[in-house]
Amino acid sequence: MDKLKVITIFGTRPEAIKMAPLVKELEKKEQIDTKVCVTAQHREMLDQVLELFDIKPDFDLNIMKTKQSLTGITTRVLEGLEEIFEQEKPDLILVHGDTTTTFAGALAAFYQKIKVGHVEAGLRTYDKYFPFPEEMNRKLTGAVADMHFAPTPGSKMNLLREGVDPNSIFVTGNTVIDAMEFTVDDKYVFKNSELNNIDYNGKKVIMVTAHRRENWGKGIENICYALRDIVNENKDVEIVYLVHLNPVVKNVVYKILGDVDRVHLLAPLDTKETHNLMNRCYMVMTDSGGLQEEAPHLGKPVLVLRNVTERPEAVKAGTVKLVGTDISTIKKEANDLITNCKEYDSMSKAINPYGDGKASQRISASILKYFGIEKSEYEEFS
């Protein structure tokens, strides 16, 4: 056959971080005609990643609008991709994870009978509203996918239980670990001067992100009150909270934590700044999904500010704890890690179950084998 035409589609910063090393790996393959389409579901934060990895999209739908709805995102992606697919006629499209771009991209390809590869497939909470809308985005994408790139054996088992053809599942590890091999530097100097002035050796610096829809309102309030108490009760603690720009989150955070000593409220950082802050910090508290994979790679304990996670491997391995949004529970678990060296060491030294930096290589090899271009074997991640 002629060159295999592959279009990689993503639209948010987390997707871009995890797809960037795969894009770079596909570019090395002479047998693949690789193109990139961004939806720009998130504009500014997406562009930061594109610049970092020197990725120039072939197509940019630029769909982001003020106060955009899930319905609006879905319809704009469907309409934009329809024209691109009709023009390009790709053999395979690749989408990542659980965003609305992911689901709409897979659906648009299905409508034109184009094969779909789902990177980071098989994660489940089995509660369709937690995380919302990500759980159903991921399941619905899986329903139309032809190739399922599961990051862990546990993700593969989820897919097998749902009746997915075993021959279509490839255990690869998570591509975010590939990305961190590029972004983390022990000698890194932050662009943000406030971060350069923090004493990472003399203080226990806690990196925080919390912004998920299911935590809006009472959840974010509780998290902020807990953080206020933690820093007030522990004089050797500083907190760096990367505050989401959405006013629903930002206004609450600044109201409760805006005047608290040793609490640094910063806008979201670009990928390299974020990964290097994580590398310097003492521990992480987050309701994010991706940080549950990234922080353990750097030996940082993670307290997850959610009641459920689609990443149970880290909980089982001991690198992550689910603490929810109850104030007393958050404080107890954080204080245990701040004051109990044995507890901290057990989490920080646990083995990261998410990857070895070779996920993109495994995915590209799987694609070439699936389409009969190369028959070389490779070892799955375990």
Describe it.
- This protein has 382 residues and is of the alpha/beta class.
- Helices cover 45% and strands 15% of the residues.
- The protein folds into 2 domains: 4-177 and 355-371, Rossmann fold; 193-349, 3-Layer(aba) Sandwich (Rossmann fold).
- The chain has helices at 13-27, 44-52, 70-88, 100-111, 134-144, 153-161, 175-183, 193-196, 218-233, 247-257, 271-280, 291-297, 312-317, 327-339, 341-348, 359-370, and strands at residues 4-10, 32-38, 59-60, 92-96, 115-119, 147-150, 169-171, 204-209, 237-242, 263-266, 283-286, 302-304, 320-322.
- The strands form 2 sheets. The protein has a 7-stranded parallel beta sheet, with helices on both faces.
- Helix 1 packs parallel to helix 2, helix 1 (13-27) packs across helix 7 and helix 9 packs parallel to helix 14.
- It is globular and about 65 Å long.
- The protein starts with a strand and ends in a 12-residue tail after the last helix.
Q: How would you briefly describe this protein structure?
A:
The protein is α/β, with parallel strands linked by helices and 382 residues long. The protein has helices spanning 13-27, 44-52, 70-88, 100-111, 134-144, 153-161, 175-183, 193-196, 218-233, 247-257, 271-280, 291-297, 312-317, 327-339, 341-348, 359-370; strands at 4-10, 32-38, 59-60, 92-96, 115-119, 147-150, 169-171, 204-209, 237-242, 263-266, 283-286, 302-304, 320-322. α4 runs parallel beside α5 (134-144), α9 runs parallel beside α10 (247-257) and α9 (218-233) runs parallel beside α14 (327-339).
